[in-house]
Specification:
single chain, alpha+beta, five-stranded mixed sheet, two-stranded antiparallel ribbon, 16 helices, 13 strands, 13% strand
Length: 386
């Protein structure tokens, strides 16, 4: 079974937003927000106020209040000791603290009046996406984005959060470089940005750089484990190690990919190179790839990538919780126009080609969708090998 992570939901949403804005020639301006030591800086009173606003049971609120109000840091140098009371920040490493931070951050956004800002998605304005402290602000014009950033900065300061202006970036699908200042500093304009581990770009050829990056990272992961993968341990253990530690690096974010034949072949060639090193076989030995796969028994990279994308497609289609992921996928802008000529490859194109125009209906039945996916997965395996 393939489990869909929340970070993939956010990556999928923002990539669909970029895809639709590019397809219909809509102006898009994105600001990536970064905080300095966000989890260590948030005021405790802001966390408690946010819990009260969410109507959390007072017993839990009082328990959290007691934990944080009595927290101290003990420093000992030689025979001297100092106790320093901790008045800021949430603890890290437990399951509760991220929820506390998110609750406080959610209260910040509730206080801001942004009901007329953002991009109209079928009658509702989308002005930001949040995953923990990774925040993306979205607008259709520069001035509005500037106002949103300044507004967020002011509200963030009230609860102890400081923006890391040097790491904040602006990205747009227009040819101009928007000028946006925060506290006297101009934010840098970029053509691409690493968001939740995946490279985002507004360029038309938006997958080549990410696949190249995935290949490079997979080689780095392979290099760290090469001494194990080329040792005398059983091939079954090597297979498990590769499938659990290297293949996920190579296919991270595959749920959101729009692959071409050339990119699929690049991924397959990378895995074949890994396999030859594991078996100590040179390319000049001219040994058939089918024999090599019989020896390594690795999960095919395109099989894994296709499984991930097919699972996400079914997962999103079955949703009825009004999340942006599905709404952006179904969005058909009422303004804007498509450019003349062949459109760029879209995320849903290969899904639609395999499952038909009404593929979202077919995805409602998990069993039916699973069976339909076998042909889709096999198709991409063959494309990668061709």
């Amino acid at each position: 079974m393939i489990y869909i992570r929340m970070d993939m939901d956010h990556i999928h949403a923002i990539k669909h937003l970029i895809e639709k804005c590019n397809e219909y020639n809509l102006d898009l301006y994105i600001a990536f927000i970064d905080y300095q030591k966000a989890f260590d800086s948030i005021e405790i009173w802001a966390v408690l106020n946010s819990l009260n606003a969410c109507r959390v049971d007072s017993r839990y609120t009082n328990l959290i209040k007691n934990i944080y109000s009595s927290a101290i840091m003990h420093v000992q140098l030689w025979n001297k000791t100092n106790d320093i009371p901790i008045k800021r920040g949430v603890r890290q490493g437990d399951t509760v603290s991220p929820g506390l931070f998110i609750a406080a951050l959610n209260e910040i956004f509730r206080e801001m009046d942004w009901h007329k800002k953002g991009i109209n998605i079928d009658g509702e304005l989308l002005h930001h996406l949040r995953f923990a402290d990774d925040i993306v602000l979205i607008s259709s014009n520069v001035q509005e984005l500037q106002d949103m950033i300044l507004d967020l900065n002011n509200h963030s300061k009230n609860v102890g959060l400081e923006m890391n202006i040097s790491k904040m970036k602006i990205m747009t699908n227009k040819n101009n470089n928007p000028v946006i200042h925060v506290e006297g500093q101009q934010l840098e304009n970029v053509e691409n940005y690493i968001y939740l581990g995946q490279k985002l770009t507004t360029k038309k050829d938006n997958m080549t750089d990410e696949i190249t990056r995935r290949v490079s990272l997979s080689w780095a992961a392979f290099g760290k484990l090469k001494h194990v993968l080329t040792s005398d341990i059983p091939h079954n253990l090597k297979k498990n190690l590769y499938n659990q530690c290297i293949l996920p690096v190579l296919t991270y974010g595959a749920e959101t990919w729009c692959l071409t034949k050339k990119l699929a072949q690049k991924l397959t060639k990378t895995q074949r190179a890994h396999e030859r090193i594991i078996l100590n076989i040179k390319l000049s030995d001219r040994i058939r790839n089918t024999w090599i796969r019989e020896q390594t028994k690795l999960t095919d990279v395109m099989e894994r990538a296709a499984q991930l994308k097919w699972s996400l497609a079914g997962h999103v289609a079955r949703r009825n919780d009004n999340r942006w992921t599905k709404r952006l996928m179904e969005w058909r802008p009422r303004v804007g126009h498509r450019s003349i000529g062949r459109p760029n490859t879209r995320w849903r194109d290969d899904i639609k080609k395999s499952a038909g125009l009404l593929w979202m209906r077919g995805a409602i039945s998990r069993k039916k969708w699973f069976n339909m996916g076998k042909a889709y997965i096999q198709q991409w395996i063959e494309i990668g090998r061709s």
